[in-house]
Amino acid sequence: MIEKQLDHENEEIISRLRRMRVFDTLGDRQMMEIIKLSRLRKYDPGEVLIQEGEYDQYIYFLIGGDLAIESNGTEVGHIRRLGDVFGEMGIIDGSPRSATIRAVGPSLCLAVDGAFMDRLQGADKLIAQAVFYRIFAEILAVRLRDTSKRAADMERRLAEHGLLDDEEQ
Question: pTM, whole model, 2 decimals?
Answer without folding.
Answer: 0.79
